[in-house]
Amino acid sequence: MAAAALLRAGLGGGRGARTALLTRSLLLLRRRPGVLPALASAAPIRGSHGQQGHGGSKAASLHWTSERAVSVLLLGLLPAAYLCPGPAVDYSLAAALTLHGHWGLGQVITDYVHGETPIKVANTGLKRSLPSPSKEQTTLHTLQCISPLLKTVEETPQPIPAKVKGHIPEWINGNLLRNGPGRFEFGEEKYNHWFDGMALLHQFQLRNGTVTYRSKFLQSNSYLTNRQHNRIVVSEFGTLAMPDPCKSVFERFMSRFDTPKPSDNASVSYVVYKGDYYVSSENTFMYKVDPETLETKEKVDWSKFIAVNGATAHPHYASDGTTYNMGNSYGKHGTRYNIIEIPPQKSNCSDTLEGAKVLCSIAPMDKMKPSYYHSFGMSENYIIFIEQPIKLNLMRIITSKFRGKPISEGINWEPQHSTRFHVVNKHTGEVLPGQWYSKPFATFHQINAFEDHGCVVLDLCCQDDGKTLATYKLQNMRRSGVDLYQVYNSVARTFPRRFVLPLNMSSDAPVGKNLNPLPYTLAKAVKDVDGKVWCTHENLHPEGFENFGGLEFPQINYSQYSGKKYRYFYGCGFRHFIGDSLMKVDVETKNFKIWQEEGSYPSEPVFVPVPNAMAEDNGVILSVVISPDENRSAFLLVLDAETFKELGRAEVPVEMPYGFHGIFRSH
C-alpha cells in the first residue's frame, strides 16, 4: 500500500441503555471475589450535580441512579482489576464506556441524561465527565491475537448466498467491491510486510434484500509468476525476492545488479476511470477488472500515456466525470510531483487512459528525498498536496537490491523537516504562490476539503510520528500477549484534524496575527516575517477520543459532499493494528457515535446514499466484519448512517483476511 513509485511505486440515558451499562459493569466485575454482594445492595443516590458534557456549557443537574453509582464504584475498582485481569474479560475503561460485546448484536454509544434532555455520551465532555485511562490501560490485556486475519485464504470464485439477519434495505442494489492482500507466501517463502500480500478481490452483491459473496485473486503477472515457480520471484514493498536457487553462486551474485522487475500487484483499492473499474496500488500498473465477475481484464501502464512512474490509489472525481490523481516522475529534470487529469469520456470502446495529461508539476524541497504521499485533497477549484516529512531516499531505494534490502528500507520519517501545503488551481494548473507550513505530521488519508471566504478548509487524518509504515510487518501484527501490546503501543495514533489555508494574502497582510477569518473553526494561520504562513490545526474530535484508538479509513457522503462544506464523516477506530470499531463524527459538534462488537474487526466504512436523499447522512454504512474466532462467520454489516444502529448483517462461512479499501457500484 505504501510502495514508492520507483518499484511498486458510559452513562446510559434510556432504560435499555442503563440496563446495558449495569450488565456490563457486572460482567466486568464477575471475576472479583466479594464485589458482587456489595453491588447487589447498592441503593439509589439522589440530588448530586455535575457539569454538562459539552465544552463551554453551563453546569446542569444530572440525576444519579443506582446504575450510575455502580459505574462510579467500577471506576474505583479499575486499578485493582488491572492487577489480576482474567483472559475472557476486557477491563479497560474505554471498553466499559463503549458497552461493546457480551450481548447480541454490536452496540452503539447511547445517551446519558442532562436534565430531561438526552445528550450523546461521546461528546466533548467525555473526559470531563469521567477520568480517561492511560494508553497502557486502554490496550494492556485487551489486544486479541489477529494472526488468523493475516493468513492466506482460498478464493471463492462462484457466488454463494449469505445468511441475512435483521433487515437489508431493498433499495440497496449494487456491488460492494473490496481489495486487499489474500496470499502471504509461495512455497516455503513468506512475505515480510502486510502490504506485500497478493491482491484478493471481494464482491458482496446486494439485490432486493438478498446478498451473495464471491472472491478472486487478481491474475497479475506477479501472482502468476510467483505461483508458477512456487516461490517469491517478484519483490514487493517489504520483501526482496531471492535469486533463483538453481543458478550458480556467481549468477546469483550478479543478479543483484539486474534491474528489478516492478511488481504489478494492485492490492490497495478500486478506482474508476471513464466508467471502467480498475484495481490499483501506487506503481505504474493498474488492472481493469469486471465488477460483476471479478475477472482480470486488461493491464494498463500509466507511463504509456503520460510521463509519470505511477499514481495513487485514491483519485478524486469531479461532478462532470473528470478524474484527478497524483503521481511522481523521475527524469532528466529531477523528481517531480505531478497533478494528473483524466477526461470523463472514452474516445472508443478500447480506450483506457487516452487523453490523460499532466496538469502541473511541483519540485520537491529535496530532489533526492521527495515525500511519500498516499492521497491528496480536492475542493471545488483546487488540488491540495501535502509534502510531508516521510521521505523517499532515492539513493537507498535505487541500490536496495544490490544491498539485499527491500525498498521499504528506503522510506524514512525525518521530523526535522516541516510539513508543507501546496495549492493548485485544478482548472488552470497554476500553483498558487502562497507558502503554507505546519509542524511535522504524517497523513495517509484525506477526509474532505472545501472553500469558504477565500480559504481552503482541509480535513485529514494525522499522526505526529510517521514511522508507522515500518511497524506493519507481519511478524509484528501476528504477535500475541504482551509482545503484541508492546508493538501496538509504539504506533502513533491517528486523529482527524482541520487546517485552514488563507489563499488571498496581500503583501501587507499583518505578521504574527491569525489570518483565519472563519468563526466556526479554531484552526490558525499566522504569517511569519519571511512570508511563510504557519498553520495550526483544530482537532475534529472530543477530549478522550484517544481512548478509542484514534480514527483512520475516513469516508464521507462523497457523491454529494466531496469538495463542499459538510458535517459528517465515518471511519474505523483503531484500538488494535486493524480497525476494531466504526465511528461517525459530527465536525460541527464533535460528537461521535460508535459501533463495536467484541472480537470483531470491521473494514473501512462505505457510505451509500438513499436514492434522492435530502439529508447528508440519509443512507447506510456498509462494512465487512471479520473475526479471528473460527466459530464466527464473516459478515457484511449494514448500519443506518443517521442513527448508526444496525439494520442487518449478511453472514458468509468464508475466511477473509483484513483488507484495505473498497467502493460501492450501484446497479
TrEMBL record:
InterPro entries xref list: Carotenoid_Oase, Quinoprotein_ADH-like_sf, SQR/QFR_C/D
Pathway: Carbohydrate metabolism; tricarboxylic acid cycle
Gene Ontology MF, one: carotenoid dioxygenase activity
Names of the cofactor(s): Fe(2+)
Function statement: Membrane-anchoring subunit of succinate dehydrogenase (SDH) that is involved in complex II of the mitochondrial electron transport chain and is responsible for transferring electrons from succinate to ubiquinone (coenzyme Q). SDH also oxidizes malate to the non-canonical enol form of oxaloacetate, enol-oxaloacetate. Enol-oxaloacetate, which is a potent inhibitor of the succinate dehydrogenase activity, is further isomerized into keto-oxaloacetate. Broad specificity mitochondrial dioxygenase that mediates the asymmetric oxidative cleavage of carotenoids. Cleaves carotenes (pure hydrocarbon carotenoids) such as all-trans-beta-carotene and lycopene as well as xanthophylls (oxygenated carotenoids) such as zeaxanthin, lutein and beta-cryptoxanthin at both the 9,10 and the 9',10' carbon-carbon double bond. Through its function in carotenoids metabolism regulates oxidative stress and the production of important signaling molecules.
Native source organism of the sequence: Cairina moschata
Binding site for Fe cation: 314, 374, 445, 661
GO biological process, one term: carotene catabolic process
Primary localisation category: mitochondrion
Tagged with keyword Chaperone: no
Gene Ontology, cellular component aspect: membrane; mitochondrion
Cofactor note: Binds 1 Fe(2+) ion per subunit.
Subunit structure: Component of complex II composed of four subunits: the flavoprotein (FP) SDHA, iron-sulfur protein (IP) SDHB, and a cytochrome b560 composed of SDHC and SDHD.
Name under which the protein is recorded: Carotenoid-cleaving dioxygenase, mitochondrial
Enzyme class (EC, first level): oxidoreductase
Gene3D superfamilies in alphabetical order: Fumarate reductase/succinate dehydrogenase, transmembrane subunit
Keywords recorded for this protein, A-Z: Dioxygenase, Iron, Lipid metabolism, Metal-binding, Mitochondrion, Oxidoreductase
EC number(s) reported in the record: 1.13.11.71
Family classification: Belongs to the carotenoid oxygenase family.
Cellular compartments annotated: Mitochondrion
Enzymatic reactions: all-trans-zeaxanthin + 2 O2 = 4,9-dimethyldodeca-2,4,6,8,10-pentaenedial + 2 (3R)-hydroxy-beta-ionone; (3R)-3-hydroxy-10'-apo-beta-carotenal + O2 = 4,9-dimethyldodeca-2,4,6,8,10-pentaenedial + (3R)-hydroxy-beta-ionone; lutein + O2 = (3R,6R)-3-hydroxy-10'-apo-alpha-carotenal + (3R)-hydroxy-beta-ionone; all-trans-10'-apo-beta-carotenal + O2 = beta-ionone + 4,9-dimethyldodeca-2,4,6,8,10-pentaenedial
Protein's UniProt keywords contain Iron: yes
